[in-house]
Amino acid sequence: MRKVMLCFVSLIFATMTFGQDKNKKMAFEVDGKCDMCKVRIEKAALGVPGVKYALWDIPSHQLSLIVDERKTDPMKIKSALVAVGHDTKELKASQEAYDSVHPCCKYRDDDADDSGHH
Hints:
Elements: H1 2-18, E1 24-29, H2 35-46, E2 51-56, E3 62-67, H3 74-83, H4 95-99
Antiparallel strand pairs: 1-3, 2-3
């Protein structure tokens, strides 16, 4: 009986922890243009509790992350990004936040890639 109970408790515990990963990889697009954007985007992402790794690729605009799903989720990260002036597909930065980025980082009306300028 003790073995059955131990197996049952182990099964319940495994089921509860299975739904959320301690280290989950994810990636999504974040608008920006240059090295200054890269620093700002990565710093904002890493400032969210649970984000362990953040790397933004300038040409593809892809932000690659490793996160602890028990502490954060993609919308919390995207909220931090729009707060520093960078749009995502789901959330747009306020005009005030967008206006706070350096003039060369303005990406909304300009498709030019300034990545070589910084």
